[in-house]
Amino acid sequence: MKLIKEKRWAIVFSLLAMLLWGSAIPLIKTTYIHANILPDDPGGKIYIAGIRFFMGGLLTFIYFFLFNKEEVKRENVNFKFIVIIGLLQTCLQYGFYYIGLSNTLGSLTAVIQSSNAFITVLFSVLLISDERLTKKKVIALLVGSTGLLITNLNSQGSFHFKFTGEGFVLIAQTVNALSSVLIRKYGRNLNGFLLTGSQFVLGAMPLIILGAITHKSNVNFDFVLFLMLSYGAFISATAFTIWTFVLQAHSASEFGIYKLFIPVFGTILSILVLGEDLTINIVLGLVFVLAGAIILNKKQTKKGV
């Protein structure tokens, strides 16, 4: 996708991907309800996740045959890297995410997801030689982290944190950030459609197998569930394909900040679709994480800043 190589279009497509990812939060929660997944059934949750991403992989391959214009040579396909990304970005990330999301509010999850941008900066500095931890990045990290802390304060002012809820969502974001940087470092020459589709299918299979063996719920498979999973597959195929192309063409630490728009879209949609309350802590948390994004994206005015 040559258009994404232009920065302005890369920003537009990045925001589109974030809107799609934000819409996944209320979708997943309503899918659990419709599919009759029990709250204490992690196997059922990852089973649903596996089916969604397997369908997303198949859809991405359809995108490849419809829209791909570059020649793909077998010797240029790094199968080992694709397997690693599949296990990290699909299997491990969404195993934690689907369970964590079920144990916390969708609006709260949306804000916690904003940590992805800051963790991406840290991994970029550690793993990519031309990325530096500047004063500006440190300030952005501190401001954004403050937002996350505010979001997790309850009405009594004490810190609320459930490991299998907010903790699992945070682990998922850490794995996703690592995957984003690895794609930027090792996957920039791979075909974006094939990388996305292959890692979805490979990463989804362990989730499906483990979920099928361990789930306790009597899953309600009907046409409505098929439509929900199909939209989830569309989100995955479209957003991840766009994001892969963006990371292949642009700096992971610079564009990773656009993931801060996921909490904005996710919070709004969670309130509209799930009927959740917009608390002052969530509003303040969003303000701080968006402030971190502005700081990180501010043009350099001094050397090293």
UniProtKB/TrEMBL annotation:
Keywords: Cell membrane, Membrane, Transmembrane, Transmembrane helix
InterPro entries xrefs: AA-Vitamin_Transporters, EamA_dom, EmrE-like
Domain called EamA: residue spans: 9-152, 165-297
Any Pfam family hit: EamA
GO cellular component: plasma membrane
Protein name, per record: Uncharacterized inner membrane transporter yiJE
Cellular localisation: Cell membrane
Keyword Repressor among UniProt keywords: no
PANTHER family tied to this protein: INNER MEMBRANE TRANSPORTER, S-ADENOSYLMETHIONINE_S-ADENOSYLHOMOCYSTEINE TRANSPORTER
Membrane-spanning segments: 48-67, 79-99, 105-126, 190-213, 225-245, 257-274, 280-297
Family per similarity comment: Belongs to the EamA transporter family.
